[in-house]
Fold this sequence. Notes:
Layout: H1 2-74, H2 78-82, H3 84-96, E1 102-107, E2 111-116, E3 122-126, H4 132-142, E4 147-148, E5 152-153, E6 160-170, E7 173-183, H5 188-191, E8 201-206, E9 212-214, H6 236-247, E10 252-258, E11 261-269, E12 276-281, H7 289-306, H8 308-331, E13 332-333, E14 338-339, H9 341-353, E15 357-364, H10 367-374, H11 376-393, E16 399-403, E17 407-412, H12 417-434, E18 446-453, H13 459-479, E19 485-487, H14 490-511, E20 515-524, E21 530-539, H15 549-559, H16 562-582, E22 589-593, H17 596-599, H18 604-615, E23 622-627, H19 628-631, H20 635-647, E24 651-657, H21 664-669, E25 674-677, H22 687-706, E26 710-713, H23 719-727, E27 732-733, E28 742-743, H24 744-752, H25 757-762
Parallel strand pairs: 18-19, 21-22, 22-23, 23-24, 24-25, 25-26, 26-27
Antiparallel strand pairs: 1-2, 1-7, 2-3, 4-6, 5-6, 6-7, 8-9, 8-12, 10-11, 11-12, 13-14, 15-17, 15-18, 16-17, 20-21, 20-27, 20-28
Helix pairs in contact: 1-7, 1-8, 7-8, 9-13, 10-11, 11-12, 14-15, 16-18
Amino acid sequence: xxxxxxxxxxxxxxxxxxxxxxxxxxxxxxxxxxxxxxxxxxxxxxxxxxxxxxxxxxxxxxxxxxxxxxxxxxxxxxxxxxxxxxxxxxxxxxxxxxxxxxxxxxxxxxxxxxxxxxxxxxxxxxxxxxxxxxxxxxxxxxxxxxxxxxxxxxxxxxxxxxxxxxxxxxxxxxxxxxxxxxxxxxxxxxxxxxxxxxxxxxxxxxxxxxxxxxxxxxxxxxxxxxxxxxxxxxxxxxxxxxxxxxxxxxxxxxxxxxxxxxxxxxxxxxxxxxxxxxxxxxxxxxxxxxxxxxxxxxxxxxxxxxxxxxxxxxxxxxxxxxxxxxxxxxxxxxxxxxxxxxxxxxxxxxxxxxxxxxxxxxxxxxxxxxxxxxxxxxxxxxxxxxxxxxxxxxxxxxxxxxxxxxxxxxxxxxxxxxxxxxxxxxxxxxxxxxxxxxxxxxxxxxxxxxxxxxxxxxxxxxxxxxxxxxxxxxxxxxxxxxxxxxxxxxxxxxxxxxxxxxxxxxxxxxxxxxxxxxxxxxxxxxxxxxxxxxxxxxxxxxxxxxxxxxxxxxxxxxxxxxxxxxxxxxxxxxxxxxxxxxxxxxxxxxxxxxxxxxxxxxxxxxxxxxxxxxxxxxxxxxxxxxxxxxxxxxxxxxxxxxxxxxxxxxxxxxxxxxxxxxxxxxxxxxxxxxxxxxxxxxxxxxxxxxxxxxxxxxxxxxxxxxxxxxxxxxxxxxxxxxxxxxxxxxxxxxxxxxxxxxxxxxxxxxxxxxxxxxxxxxxxxxx
Length: 767
């Protein structure tokens, strides 16, 4: 009996020990899997962070080169660029002090000077002789924007190069473009560092088709390949996934196989010209500790089998410490001793779930310059001082992070703009006061973007919106010279989004007929009958919206699209006139606005004449309206063009007279047929303003009548307005008092079906 009891106890003890061992093995397996996943996630986060860092370095290199060109362009003007020998010498001197392969200047006619390392300067260089890529970058700069070309084979060096280009200004106007070319190898030093991924990885620069643009000196694949898609290294599924992600300009992680080993890689968009960073982690750097950690884990659990309680506690402590290190590695910048952006976004989402607040992005102006002047050690010390000031000034429920070289993010609980501004100004003043960057009088400068959330809702969505808005605000602050703290403006953001939509859709919209002609009738004040109509444009996209001229015409004037649109409107007027005549209706004159850019086109008169011939429309029914500002630039040249148009039968009207700086003398010199008085004259037709406006308009109309010029008053809104323009002798009235701008269909139904031949003849404008 006792023996049986002992045997039972022994079996029970053995079973208990077995269950403990099985449990410990199960726990050990789970913990090992957790450690592996944590390690993998931390390594991936660091790979992404390091890839973004190298992307930032590449963009900084580009920005520095652009700054060099911009600085040189600021010393160029009309005089210095006209002397090609002097210009060639200046460009050659600049070339000697930089790493560029070539430098060139081209005026707006495509003539310029080209200097090349080790060669004689070309003082009669032509823009047309450049490669299509280089020529495209220069042409963009001539439009007022800096540009960088795509890669191309240089005929000079026989290697792949790219071109920078910036505009050159004189008296606020673009007079030409300054360009420089450089080898793609300038990025090799950036990508070939020994510290890439802890010394156990490498980075290549790819084009948008996957071809290698610049290779690191380190690599796994020893065979020569032109593209990441060459060879059997990528599986078919991985190959397709990578291509799709690159087409979408998205980041993607995958792996390739080489000599029986799998190598993880990350493809990071550079955000310029379709370039990518191809980042490979060989496991010899970031993953070098993985095997050691695995051995430690095995030893720990073997020990736990021998000393269950002690080693379980020890294992827990070891796991806790290891997780802390992983978290610190993934979410903490050890150099600045501050949290990074990934941790900031996590905390921000949780903070927004508890209420509103503001995200602030702070950037140090000219950080690269600070590093060059004071050195890396001093600038790192400055960043730590900013962190110390932030620690002192933040409230218990607020936090911040360090991101990239020159910027910090802050979360503030305040939602009032004035309060936030005061806090930021005090914060920046303290930084400037305590900053120690050497024994100099250098004044630190910052700019801040601020985005505020006052509403609740989905914290994740709110966080993403805030991070997007603060970037927009920071870009605005960066361009501001007087206000370095910029709060996100939703209306301004919507305006920019609208402008982006307009510029990206305008050509297709013109092809699709989305620009519609509306007509506003004009009343003859002497006969009381229809005098004609002014053609006005409305943009009606397929989404049901209506865009009015004040939303897109100013932008078209800047980008030159008004040339195409104005000709389109003349053609629409010709179509309508032709339709009237084909249906037996006596036509009335249609006034069409013409931009400055179109009016002085060399083939302008010929294009209009050809359009009239195409639709068999007499020119007398087309009135071409020009703005008063055009008359102030060159009266003689303008009269010459007006004479050419009048010789073809067109009538010319001067629009918005009185809105600018026109003079009676200028009016007397112009050979126009019609004068349209600006609506400003009718804004106040009572009291002292009535008497003053009356005297001015009477003088203008009297002079116009003496010169045989027909007068039209715009902006007639009330009966009092009409009585006023009648009293001063105006010929025609136009405005909402008579009719708003209406569609062609409504105009035909309202006016053309009721008008007979005698009425229309009585309402015609005299030559």
